[in-house]
Design goal:
Helix content is about 80%, strand content about 0%. With about 425 residues, it is an all-alpha fold. It is found in: Cell membrane. Keywords: Cell membrane, Membrane, Transmembrane, Transmembrane helix.
């Protein structure tokens, strides 16, 4: 998908935005994009890290805990294509501010939830910022970062999701043990409001927005070409990652006899490993190498899922498994975002990002409820086997696409 002159997603004057060395480009700090990604999915990690407390205090069953993920990410999957179109039109400044404020409201309502029904409604609202996150941050990068640095910046901002996992699993879980889980969630909501103010004061108003009167590419709800393959890969990957995120702490507490604090620390370990993996693998995702990385990283994720199953017999393996999930499974999602930006169709950076994200979010919606049924029956071994099968499916899709891409490149060279 070659870029054309005047593509709003291109970084340069033709796009109507500042170059990477201009003051406007420097007005899009990587730290802000990283924080935006962290808050967009923080509720997922908080529900996972605080799962043992929610099960006890709100009388939430493991199945219902999985249903919270289904509702939140189901909402995100449905709204992602429209969210991408909105970002292409209004630009990342307004989109980022909106997602941060919506995250704050959703977190505040989760903290006020008196029971499962209210909790599910609050989580549904949290699906809205998730639908905006990747399109808005990718659009900001395309508008202000030179191509040579986009992989590294993308890896860093994608690591924000795992920064959220670390925050949920360590400082916020510790705060929950001190002041209660509601105070911890409200603290996160306040931090999201502060970050929204930072975004409004920092980002230039027109960065990445489509020019007035010009549509940002043809609108389509169906992914095509490379985007379709990446969406299918992300669907299977998301099924597995969401199950791990939602049930890892509960598995540690109920089957491995870890304390609630230690079980929450598992999520933090996964988060730290994910940060390192996303930054490193995104830097490695050069145009020639990137198509092969998703499949091979998914293969590594299969091993991580098998380690989780083995931890039932050898408890310390769960820590190694958490690291492996972060290094392989979580990192594969970041590489898929690098690929989207490398191949974004003219004027469709936001939409293409949103369509791939929709596949990932659909996986997040589908995976945990099935795992939850197995967790209710105390069949965690079968649950981790299911996760391994989902990662294996993602591996097959990723490697098949890479082979097709290599074949298409050879045919183009022969022509």
């Amino acid at each position: 998908m070659a870029r054309e002159h005047g593509d709003p997603g291109a970084a340069g004057p033709a796009a109507g935005v500042g170059t990477a060395s201009s003051p406007r480009a420097r007005g899009v700090p990587t730290a802000l994009l990283t924080c935006a990604m962290a808050f967009s999915m923080l509720q997922l990690f908080l529900l996972g890290a605080l799962g043992p407390r929610l099960v006890d205090e709100l009388d939430v069953s493991p199945t219902t805990l999985g249903l919270t993920t289904t509702i939140g990410f189901g909402t995100a999957a449905v709204l992602s294509p429209v969210g991408g179109r909105i970002v292409d039109r209004v630009g990342p400044r307004r989109a980022l501010a909106a997602l941060l404020l919506l995250s704050a409201v959703a977190l505040a309502l989760i903290g006020a939830a008196p029971g499962a029904g209210f909790l599910l409604a609050a989580v549904a609202l949290g699906g809205l910022p998730q639908a905006l996150a990747n399109p808005a941050t990718n659009k900001a990068i395309l508008a202000s970062v030179e191509p040579a640095r986009r992989g590294a910046v993308t890896g860093m901002k994608q690591s924000g999701v795992q920064l959220g996992a670390f925050a949920a699993g360590l400082p916020l879980a510790a705060l929950a043990g001190w002041l209660g889980w509601r105070a911890a969630v409200w603290t996160a909501a306040f931090a999201a409001v502060v970050t929204a103010v930072w975004a409004l004061r920092t980002l230039p108003g027109a960065t990445g927005a489509a020019a007035p009167g010009r549509p940002a590419g043809a609108f389509s709800l169906l992914p095509r070409g490379a985007v379709a393959w990446l969406a299918a890969f992300s669907l299977l990957l998301g099924c597995g990652i969401a199950s791990v995120n939602t049930y890892l702490a509960l598995y540690g507490a109920h089957r491995l006899d870890l304390s609630p604090g230690a079980a929450g620390a598992l999520v933090a370990v996964l988060g730290v490993a994910g940060v390192a993996g996303r930054v490193a693998w995104s830097r490695a995702a050069t145009p020639g190498r990137a198509p092969w990385l998703p499949g091979w990283l998914a293969a590594g994720a299969v091993g991580a899922a098998l380690l989780l199953a083995a931890a039932a017999a050898a408890g310390p393996l769960v820590w190694l498994a958490a690291v492996a999930v972060g290094v392989f499974a979580v990192s594969a999602n970041a590489v898929s975002m690098v690929l989207v930006m490398q191949r974004a169709a003219p004027g469709r950076a936001g939409q293409d990002s949103a369509l791939v994200s929709a596949g990932f979010f659909a996986g997040f919606a589908l995976g945990p409820p099935v795992f939850g049924v197995l967790a209710d029956a105390d069949r965690y071994g079968w649950g981790w086997a299911l996760v391994a099968a989902e990662f294996a499916g993602a591996c097959a899709v990723g490697l098949t696409w890479a082979v097709r891409e290599r074949g298409a490149g050879r045919r183009a060279g022969d022509a």
